[in-house]
Write a structure and sequence with these properties.
Helix content is 40%, strand content 19%. It is an alpha+beta fold. It has one domain: Nucleoside diphosphate kinase-like domain (Alpha-Beta Plaits). Strands 2-3-1-4 form a 4-stranded antiparallel sheet, sandwiched between helices. Helix 3 packs across helix 4. The protein is globular. Bound molecules: adenosine-5'-triphosphate (ATP) and magnesium ion. Adenosine-5'-triphosphate binds next to strand 4.
């Protein structure tokens, strides 16, 4: 059974011109693009999305960063999508990311790390519903 996950090309990667290359990596890895849109978001919207991180020392800077420019929001589908996307992304800190991963290739720092991917089925469901209406998921 194919599984859906949610992903974001973060503002650093869009600003640095890596959108096409990152979408290419996702495509090559066999994901289907269920939905995809490019937009900017408000700090309040970022705070709602990252609510699980509220209270952490990096929360405010993270939400500031996520609302600092254009991003690409995506719903992706394949067998084992959640775990496979996390593997393709690489470690949160690009300094620890494996060779060939998206973060190794395109991230600049632990905060400006190019891509987001849901980490579990329940967070994927929340995140897809946060950014996309049912009629956008085809
Ligand atoms: P994401 O949720 O974006 O896919 P992740 O699951 O690898 O990334 P989380 O621990 O969920 O990492 O942190 C969410 C985001 O917060 C990170 O991707 C990064 O942008 C930022 N972040 C995490 N830890 C730090 C930190 N120590 N300093 C600065 N920013 C951080
Ligand atoms: Mg996370």
């Amino acid at each position: 059974m194919p599984q859906r996950t949610f992903s974001i090309v973060k503002p650093d990667a869009v600003r640095n011109g890596h959108t096409g290359a990152i979408l290419g990596e996702i495509d090559k890895a066999g994901f289907r693009f269920v939905a995809l849109k490019q937009q900017s978001i408000s700090k309040r919207q970022a705070e709602g999305f990252y609510a699980v991180h509220r209270g952490k020392p990096f929360f405010d800077a993270l939400c500031e960063f996520m609302s600092s420019g254009t991003l690409v929001l995506m719903v992706l589908e394949k067998e084992n999508a959640i775990a496979d996307l996390r593997k393709l992304m690489g470690a949160t800190n690009p300094a620890n990311a494996e060779e060939g991963t998206i973060r190794k290739q395109f991230a600049s720092s632990i905060q400006e790390n190019a891509i987001h991917g849901s980490d579990a089925e329940d967070t994927a469901a929340f995140e897809i519903g946060y950014w996309f209406a049912g009629y956008e998921l085809i």
